[in-house]
């Protein structure tokens, strides 16, 4: 019966968390905050008649560490773009290591002093352990709020990068401190041992992560178009990298020195390899499901962690009245530590950085946006219950003392910082639209309303709506359309440069979509796809920085050693200039250019484009893509004529793949409309596969 109660409790928690999720949307309170409140309330509720089963389920340290933590790490690291990480690598390194260490040791020294003033004699190692646990930031809650309030993407990237990498730093230092507490501190030998362990954790984790990520990327490449297997492999790599490095750490010795490897670093690295290298090996049709799959699992994991955080705090058998003053003091110390670890470090970075400076408003948000979450709770639960420290002689254990301080500060960040973060973002005007975004906003509205008007007309012509309804809707949306394009026109006329940026960004969006379709249809190899995507990403970055110069075909390829190194990590070897690669490359460019021109022609017919005083800018962008089309067609034909036998085979192959895709879509539609039975669907699908094999 106990196991039944446990499972009933687990699924009840999931049901409760779903209710909390919808409630958070209605009352506009952060989801994680409501989860913790609900968790606290579950303890008295479980004492009611018939609800005692609610207390049956608990998240053990092993479940949190080996099941949930790899999920949370993989989901975050998988979505980090190495290209963006490289742009912000210096500031992320400073925040995740230097700022973290400053914060942890500041809390250790000042926290011990502050508690001493209250008559609490707490050893330095205990306050340093608390500083290590509480200095790790949690990206999930912060990024969710950033998304809701529209904070800058670059700032979100810095926050996420800092959180991921200081999680690794925090956990490495946490394990070292636990070992020192258990074995004793022996001066310089302990410091040397700690430094060596810290180095092996980070370097070993990086090496193992690269190996795991690379091996599993190759495995995914070998298993194309098998959704179940590809999804399962990503789940395996997340957990296997984590568990295997933990196992290796227990077994690997050189003499008396235990070589420890950070499972968090290994999982972060493996996840980033899968996300930036293995992602292109995942079947394009499955990639969308991959993102949704991991987003869902991270959501479930976080929901249970934050819910159980409330349960943990409410179920602690300690006298909270004894902790009110120490907890308040440590909240002040930790908040001050964050301020001291941010402003001076970022200030020094800005002095020496030629570009990429961090604005003062961003620094304010970095200083107060350090929300805590899953890792802090996991580290608390991993502290041995019988841990003793010389000099700690309180009525409660070290673990209980640290649990109250940690969960108390986590509550402070959730109830005070998380709820005020939106106000701060608005106060600092970080969600303010740029001049380009204002044009994009009005242009998007104009496009939406023009599409709505076209669909309303179509519905009336086909008899789906009557004339009265049609005229009423037409008047309403024509008014909205006119308002949007008039505002858009005024903004555009004020700056032709912004219109050029807008159209270039729009065109690159079409390019990316067309490129993705070519990959889905298997009309370009992965390498050509990655090179063209790199070109588009680079051009987009330059446009956002105000540089609209168009790069020639291969001129964007890196020249410097380190740039080449990063390029190969992110995109692999450059496209070889053999006939097959060049023909595929130029053919893809030709198709993409044609798609952009077709789309530009469609929107050029809209009245709000005709009314722009700066229509020359629109024509200029069109002329760029007409040039692309001419050049790519000319070069494609040149390669075709020089290698007729090879390129003719390629053309036949492309046509066959396109026909196969059409056949697949028709069969799927027939099944969807119940025009054929599942038996016939399988029969037709197998037959077509044989014909095209």
Give a structural overview.
The protein is mostly helical and 693 residues long. The protein has 5 domains: 2-55, no CATH class; 61-288 and 320-427, Na+/H+ antiporter like fold, CATH 1.20.1530; 433-493; 495-642, no CATH class; 658-692, no CATH class. Helix content is 78%, strand content 1%. It contains 26 helices and 2 strands. The chain has helices at residues 2-27, 31-46, 61-78, 82-87, 89-117, 124-134, 139-149, 153-183, 188-222, 227-251, 263-276, 284-314, 324-352, 360-368, 374-382, 398-427, 435-461, 467-494, 496-520, 526-544, 561-571, 579-604, 607-610, 615-642, 644-672, 678-692; strands at residues 253-254, 257-258. The chain has a two-stranded antiparallel sheet. The model has no long low-confidence stretch (mean pLDDT 84).
**Principal-axes shape call:** globular
CATH fold node name of the largest domain? Na+/H+ antiporter like fold
Biggest sheet strand line-up: 1-2
Question: How many domains?
Answer: 5
Strand content: under 5%
The CATH architecture of the largest domain would be Up-down Bundle
Q: On the 0-100 scale, what is the average pLDDT? A: 84
